[in-house]
Amino acid sequence: xxxxxxxxxxxxxxxxxxxxxxxxxxxxxxxxxxxxxxxxxxxxxxxxxxxxxxxxxxxxxxxxxxxxxxxxxxxxxxxxxxxxxxxxxxxxxxxxxxxxxxxxxxxxxxxxxxxxxxxxxxxxxxxxxxxxxxxxxxxxxxxxxxxxxxxxxxxxxxxxxxxxxxxxxxxxxxxxxxxxxxxxxxxxxxxxxxxxxxxxxxxxx
Length: 205
Hints:
Layout lengths: L4 E5 L2 E10 L1 H5 L17 E3 L6 E3 L6 E3 L5 E3 L23 E3 L1 E4 L2 H4 L1 E11 L7 H8 L3 E6 L8 E8 L2 E9 L32
Parallel strand pairs: 1-7
Antiparallel strand pairs: 1-2, 2-9, 3-4, 5-6, 8-10, 9-12, 10-11, 11-12
C-alpha cells in the first residue's frame, strides 16, 4: 500500500493519498526514442573525463569512486555540512503524522522556488478533517516540512486548495540577493542552471 501524507491541524488528523502533477498529465506527452542500427531502443551513456569508461544510466546511483579509486557504496556515504560535520538526516514525511503550521500569509508561498506539485486525495470520506477543509475553502494556506525519501534534503510544502482539489506545493525559499547601482554583481549569486525541467502552467489548477 502506498504511503500517505498524514497532516495534523488543531488536534485533528487528515490523511491523503497523493500523486505528482507533471506536464505529461496536464498536456500529454510525445517521446522520441533513438534506435540502434538493429532497431532496438538505444541506451544513454556518458563518457568519463579520461575517456576510459562509458557510464550507463543508474550506475552512479550504486556508489562512487574516491580520489584513490576506492569504491564506496551509496549506503556508506554521509552528508557533510559547510563546517565538515555530518549533516542531519531527515526522516521521510510519508506515513507519519506531521503538524501543519498556519494559516499563513501567501507571501511565503510566493517566495518559494517550486520543485514539485502533488495532487492530494483524501483516503476516504472521513479522511479530511472538516475544520481543515473549512479553512482551505476560505483560502487559507498551511506549511509543513516535506521529505519524500529519508535523507539530508528537507523541503517545505504549502497546502493549498481551489475548486479543482487540494494540492501540496513543495520547494525551498528563494534567496534573492539584493543589488543596487553602486554594487557589482557577484557571479556566485547568479543561478546559471535551473533544475526545474518540468515547468507547470499554474492556470491549469
